[in-house]
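[Backbone geometry]
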Amino acid sequence: MIMRRLLATLIAGVVVCASTVALPAQAAAQEPREHKGEINGARYRVEVPKRWNGTLVLYSHGYIPDGFTVGQVQLSNNDETREWLLDHGYALAASEYQNKGVGYLIKEAMRDQLALLDWFNANVGKPRRTVLSGQSLGGSIATLLAERYPNRFDGALNLCAVYDPLNTFNTALDINFAVRTLLAPGEDIDLVNSRDPKAGRAALHDAINRTRETRQGQARLALAAALGNVTGWFHPHEPKPTDPAGWIRRQSDWVQWAKVDGNGTVAFADIAQRAGGNPLSNVGVNYTGQLARSGQRAAVERAYRKAGLDLRADLARLAAAPRIASERDALRHMYRYGVPTGGTRVPIVGLHTTGDAGAPPDQGRWYADQVRRNGHPDRLRQFYVERGGHCSFNAAEELTAFRALLTRIDTGHWPRHTDPRRLNAEANRFDPRFHLVAAYGESKKTMAPAFTRYSPPLTSRPSR
């Protein structure tokens, strides 16, 4: 049950670890005006500081799996980020979306966020500039809004963004397919069009739990993880694992809690219901080639040798297993509501941790490729933070990226220096309370800003 609770932060993009920071007594008179309500059944929350500077930050939360709920509508990834923005005159707004924000709601989220912006214009005032911010799957929402409504938005800050949701869920399909084929052979587990998605999820959990302590199970979990560029850096407060056994153990955590529990059979069923059919497919996928492209083949081969298993035989089992085909109309729906073109018409900044496997940093590389083909590369900047976990930034890192975006919006040029050394120097100017990093179910920990140079691997299942 503890790990199920962690999933809300791992995948949903919901900041369950953040709590509201009480303002000091002398600041009580400066507390922002708060507006709450519903628009067409979607809850919203707006905060406007006493001295509003004319900028609105519209925040899009991430994917919330079935069975998870949150309290009030979140306005930021970190509460310290929210506090700083309000203290410096920025207004904040966010919709929870329809269905209490639960499920694959990109179509609904775009509509609800635009409706909230209309409400803000009519009831608070028209912003001088409106900046999008999106976390996890919310990064896809923010990107699509920026691409399709450039007359309404001035820029976007994407945190741990799932730029290509179709890729994300096809990759999850690959991993679930490998777990079923290699760890639960012969079991009747429907991955899509399932009669009981929750039972399928439970069966895959059982398969992982009964095999993960064996060398054979660890080797096969390493293979499944490699198919989706899953790292072994699970915990943001821990250093990157250096021993192979520890790396695989943490990979198996990502596989179990992010790819099976969060993005597995229950999520597949939800997406199919919203898309009018199954949009996911592994028809024609060459898993041998996918392993080679992952950059993890040597580690997987080492695990297989240690376990006394034949890697080629397991790859042959994957190749021979019956495949899953998508339905044409459902696939079209996913492209319309989930796959951006890269047609950047406003500036976008992406921020990603290098150890993220909830939304691997290869997503940023994929989006940069789309921008080079279809957009304006000078309108995109991607920054990386050397840390494990999903969306595990501190507020100083987020605000440093935000200020770089504002410079580009206001001047038409990026800051002169955006190398990691300069970014870390900028982030270190913030008070230490803005250096807190949340971890799942634990107290926040002060961690120094960790911007770094990083080249992500190629994404395993690009949609374009």
